[in-house]
Amino acid sequence: MPEAWRRGSVLLPGLSPLLSLGGALAARAAGVLTLLGLPLLILPLFAGRFFCWRLCPMGFAAETVSRINRRNTGWIRKIPFVGKGLALLILGSAAAGWPVLIWTDPLSVFNGFFAAARQPLTWLSAATASGFILILLASLIVPNLWCHRLCPLGGLQEWLSQLGKSLRSARCAKEGDEIPPLLTHARTGRRVFLGFALGGVSGSLYRAYAPRRVTTDTDCGGTHSCGGRHGHGPGEGEAGQRRRMGRGSGAGLPIRPPGAVQQAFNALCARCGNCMTACPYGLILPDLGTTGPDGLFTPVLAFRNLNPQQEQFCFQECTACTQACPTGALRPLTVARKQQTAIGLAHICRNKCIAWKKGEYCVVCQEFCPYQAIREVERNGVMCPIVDADKCRGCGACESQCPALPIAVTIRGRDPQTVLAHPSPALHT
Amino acid sequence: MWYLGSIQTNAGGARNPKGCKAVRLQEGTHMKPVKRRSFLKTGVTAAGTALVQTPLAAADAASPAATVIVVHGTDIPKMLEAGIAKLGGWQAFIRTGMDVVIKPNVAWNSKPEQGGNTHPDLVRACVLAAEKQGAATVSLPENTCHPEKATFQASGIAAALEGTRGRLYRPAKQDYGEAEIPKGKIVKRAFVPKDILNCDCLINMPVAKHHSGATLTLSMKNWMGSVSNEDRRAWHRDGLHQCIADINTFLRAKLVVIDATRIMLTKGPQGPGELAHPYEIILSTDPVAADAYAVTLFKKTPFDVPHVRIAHEMGIGCGDLAKIRVERVEA
After folding, report:
1. Touching check for A72 and chain B: CB below 8 Å?
2. Under 8 Å CB-to-CB from A39, ≥6 apart: which residues?
């Protein structure tokens, strides 16, 4: 994907007020991207669903597919406008701090499809494209189903255009209106209120009963060498280690991109794939279940365990993903702040480490660590690595470069992400 | 010849399992006979002036010492010129129409004053000199450790090369060719940038600094910044110091220029660490001798660095300070 196109495409989801304004409402924080949502909040008051029928890329795709099937065009009348309710539900729950179903936004679904077009294409990276494909399938079965009945962004604009109409009609009310405007307004107002209230309740319920993250054995059963404080038990082989570490090197908490909010990340994340598109090193992948049942397709970092060829890491001077999030699930970070933020913690398995196990010169982990978080201890004349938890940011430089087979250094996520006091040596002022 | 190994070519460009096109010369044939001849002529001229000694001869004969030129000063381009003059001038190394490859150390996203990378002024001076000598191309392939864009920029080398024909780049997969290393004890083959395999004049231009894994990183270790990532990883597994010596049986620079204007004493290779400022550049045609001298700047003896000892024992060059003639120049 050309660089300019990639940077530009990141702005698209922010155009949806549901994501930008709803996200800001839920995260209680606004950024520059929040302003992107304003045009679509004002336009429908005057122009109705102009955006939907003229500009929306998801709508264009769904409408194009809808033209293929001419038979089921009548079905749509039997279906209520779910999208209008959905919009209220999202905004109501966002006000409660835990937005529900924010990922149904069409612009995030659309962007998710293109986030999957990053190289290299795998089943995993293609996961974010599933929403787009589902919408097209639905449009094929029941033409125009998405735009006319399901789309929450369409629903929001429908509400706003009704509001605009009634404001105008109140100003220059014509005689002979069949229904007195007051009554319609009252009915509409009641519905809007109920929708918001329902959203608020569901948001609060989500907060109260949010599924806890699935954590796989964070400190490897106690006898494993964590941070160098204790060694392996005598005679412990690979098999024992595998048993303790669950599914091999990927065990532990998932690693979130830097700047991830402490609470409600899964609720706030719209799965738009912006962070995945923005990452110049292709480190961010959609999660498939390690972050809990509500965390499907949320972004997690993978240095090596999911992509054995990956040789990049979360570069100390890059803040691309944090600047790209439309909802504020990732807070925008400055380079200085990013270098103080610990997203994970490196873990060296001494049973696999070339220096510890074989007594060979290595410490590539120390070589590559931008934060000087790997201390060396001399053992039989060879320098061996130890992780300094007060300095380790979990950037993955060590994991991405570890030459051991199987790999000896792995990063486990920090939840919540912590801000370290250790001044970053990598900061160029 | 700068590479001592026999090289074979695969004219059809058969693909090896790793997907790189194999570039090998048939044994006995030369890829660029004319240039090779001109190169040999250069070698003869240089030998005639008795300023350049082929290191193998030095190792075989054992008696004549290798020469190391140490230039002290503050104006880097001037220092380089003064050092080169002692080695017989640029014409001893670069002739019109040659493809020149310079291998600086530009691995890390760090600033010139931090001593993590070769000084940009030195690189620029060398590129300009090569252009002045009429080099056909000047390439600087570098397999950086940090993302290349940031690294080339922060190191100041991208800016230093502006207005020159020097092409600094990070080799992509297709830029590598597989090379056989017959004299290697552990490393038998490695992926080396094709520009290095095909060049007429190879100049090794490292920065002297501390290295956590290899004790120090000097000219011989610098080739690890050329080879592919797979090779780098494998070498760490297989015995780093022997592998460094092995690649030096194959990759042989015509000229070694070690930047010791400032040297990183701790936290290497990435830094930032403690710095010392010897204000020296070290020139030699023998990488082992150049490294052996550079080691002394760190208050160590050459054989404290295992790959220097191994290289000396393998006869790659002379690492014995007693047999090295150190010529000091002020510029």
Report:
1. no
2. A15
As a whole number of angstroms, the distance between CA A324 and CA B210 comes to 39
Q: Give per-residue pLDDT as tens, B152-165.
A: 999 999 999 999 99
Q: Which amino acid belongs to residue A103?
A: W
Q: Do A317 and B212 touch (CB under 8 A)?
A: no
B236–A360 CB contact, under 8 Å: yes
CA–CA distance, B94 with B89 (Å, rounded to integer):
9
A278 class by beta-carbon count within 10 Å (0-12 exposed, 13-18 middle, 19+ buried): buried
Distance from C-alpha of A181 to C-alpha of A169, rounded to nearest angstrom: 8
Interval A16-44: pLDDT, tens: 999 989 888 888 888 777 888 899 989 99
DSSP state of B143: -
Measure the CA–CA gap between A245 and B29, rounded to whole angstroms: 55
Chosen from B109, B111, B146, B217 to mutate, greatest number of chain A CBs within 10 A: B146
Query: Which of B270, B274, B275, B309 to probe by mutation at the A interface, max A CB count within 10 Å?
Result: B270
Name chain B contacts of A312, Cβ cutoff 8 Å.
147
A43-61 average pLDDT score = 90
**Do the beta carbons of residue A268 and residue A259 sit within 8 Å?**
no
Q: Of B47-61, B129-143, B238-252, B291-305, which gets the smallest average pLDDT?
A: B47-61
Mean pLDDT of A127-155: 88
Contact between A354 and B214 using a beta-carbon 8 Å cutoff: no
Kindly give the pairing relationship between strand B67-72 and strand B99-104: unpaired
What is the amino acid identity at position A79? I
User: With bands split at pLDDT 50, 70 and 90, how would you rate the model's confidence at B1?
Assistant: very low
pLDDT score for A176: 57
The whole-angstrom separation of Cα A30 and Cα A117 is 29
Which of chain A's residues have a Cβ under 8 Å away from the Cβ of B241?
Answer: 361
A367 touches chain B (CB under 8 A): yes
Instruction: Give the separation between CA A55 and CA A60, rounded to whole angstroms.
Output: 8
